[in-house]
Queue: 3 jobs
Job 1
Amino acid sequence: MLQLKIHSPLIECGTDEAGRGCLAGPVTAAAVILPNDFSHPLLTDSKQLSEKQRLQLRSIIIEEAICFTIEHVMMEEIDTLNILNASILAMHRCIEKLVHTPQFIAIDGNRFKPFGKIPHECVVKGDGKYLHIAAASILAKTERDAYMKTLHAEFPQYLWNQNKGYPTRAHREAIRQFGPTRFHRKSFRLLPEQAI
């Protein structure tokens, strides 16, 4: 069972991102502060859940969280900063906009840059260990998926409603056939090198 947070007495936010490994679209982060009595039997790493479960949990998190924020960092900034720095920037923007300033930040993964003087801890696979990180992972994933579905209406040939911008075979075939769009990350290797 997931723990609520790392430091029980503190106002602690969990933060995570979605879309780091995608060829197209933004990297999306969320930050969440949950109440001390929050629990839900389904809540875990968003990758372990079905889309229906994620959407169900999204509504519960939005309703019950003390506060939360979600931020996209778009392709141009990803290409300028690199994906790691863009992911951290997305998390920083979320933390900055929280209505309550956290006393501690819990981050999914192993890389982060200090946010002001607030202490933090990186937790590898944190979205499977702490409820607030899991909640952030669900908000980031569902928000990003919804965004990619809206882009699919304009660019149906890339099947973003299904692959959400990740490098599936069908997505790469569409890039090969139609070329990249303005939503593709120019700094990413969009196609594998041709075999000689």
Note: The first helix runs from residue 51 to 64.
Job 2
Amino acid sequence: MVQLSEIWIYPVKSLGGIKLQEAQVTDRGLEHDRRWLLVDENGLFLSQREHSELALFQPEIAGDFLNITHRVQLETIQLPLHQSFSETKTKIDVMVWEDSIQAYEVDSVISDWFSRILGFSARLVYMPEESHRKVEAKYAVTEADINSFSDGYPFLLIGQSSLDDLNSRMKEALPMNRFRPNFVCTGGDAYEEESWKEFTIGELTFFGVKPCGRCVMTTIDQEKGVTSGKDPLRTLAKYRTVGNSVLFGQNLIGSGTGLVAVGDAIAVLISI
């Protein structure tokens, strides 16, 4: 039996993740997942690809607030989990890859806090409900499919068997957080999830649209905020390369909204 074994959200793109027992599926991903974003003075998104130290910021949900703590400086800021903005506040355009998205700066005091700790200019912005970032058309299931600030898709699924197989090929085993999934499943064969075209988690339907091409972020130790070497990319490249991409995990689009929980059964409806 294939089951959902872990649920993760990353409220601020490229910062630490939060492990949940249950989560609400929305029209653009899991609730609160990558709705916030750090950008530079030009509005370009900041990422661990260039700034591995972003991993040191750890978010935590505390009631109606999102607390973000720097694990080395041991400083914490707090912001409302459910953001609202004055009608007089002006949206700004921010860039995630080729997409221009309208967002609000959360608070200049919070932006100054990030800038001080990072040592360079950074602003924390939020994607409001009225900002609709479309999924790339050739991978969308419907014309209405939208995304948060994630790289390209609302959800990422990885099978625990896939990580176990990868770790069996490496000198040192890596934790799942290197790959930043939203969903982890147990009970299937290694890499089986990359063949799933349509499946259910509990009562909700998901579509596998594209295996995930991996980048240098997988080489960053998420606890220390530093690059740990060339693995897992070096090992994955030996047997998981297709074209110019090193693949690990499956990008998903959801259909409908509702609750998913650890332990939910996964039923594959269509596979390739």
Note: The chain is about 10% helix and 40% strand.
Job 3
Amino acid sequence: MTGDQGPGPAPARPSEATWRGAAPPPLPRIGPLGWVLVVLRGTGIVTVLLVGVTLILPMRAVERLFVGSRRPLTGPWVQAVCRLSLLIIALRWRCVGRPMQGPGAVVANHSSWLDIFALNAAMPVFFVSKAEVAGWPGINILTAVTNTHFVTRDPRLARAQAAEFGARTRAGHRLLFFPEGTSSDGRRVLPFKPTLFQAFLDPALPANISLQPVTVRYRSPPGCDARFYGWWSDMELGPHLLAVLAQPRQGEVTVILHPRVAVSGHTRKSLAAAAEAAVRAGLQIPPTASS
């Protein structure tokens, strides 16, 4: 989808299998006030991210020196950067539930580029992404400093990738997966792909490993389409980002941390079904408590 309010053509979304669904709603036109907000909010977020990236490098060096691969400093630091970014956007954020204890990973629904900020604000996590993302200009810098876990869909590399996944899990890293395999309009949960969950059954992983299902729920700004924050199909990133930054009154994002699901005793299909059911229920049932 191409917006009509940008200063020029935005880069197209990289080629991948995407969910189509209904046609995306037209993006609101940006007026004078909207452009002022784009400049102010955009400048604020870029400044925060630049400072965050600059300071995370020496913090990483200290961590490597004293605690090896663990991230006691940079994990909370990334949380703070993402919470501050959401505050600058004026998108209200809240978290329901608590991060699980012990070794494990996180699985969540995927609706928008905003998920990166919302989920990182909830707990220290390391996103799992396809290897191609490492070559995207600009994005590759962020993925490098945030220690994104890249995977390649090649059966010949499956064992090596499983070993790396196991090593990071034992080091206490919370790897975050999007089992839908694509993003949606934020109004639904797409079927989870069971093949992804095979990695959690590898015998090299800790015996007591668990998964924490997480639901990300968006409420659109007053008067906007309910799918306003969703980024899917062939929508271009640039116009959508500008439309979000230009909103005078923002909506809300809620991150729901569900009880953990023990991997032991599950097959990949039953594990995928249990995680999907929890995430789906969180999108349908209003949360009752917040943290």
Note: The first helix runs from residue 32 to 67.
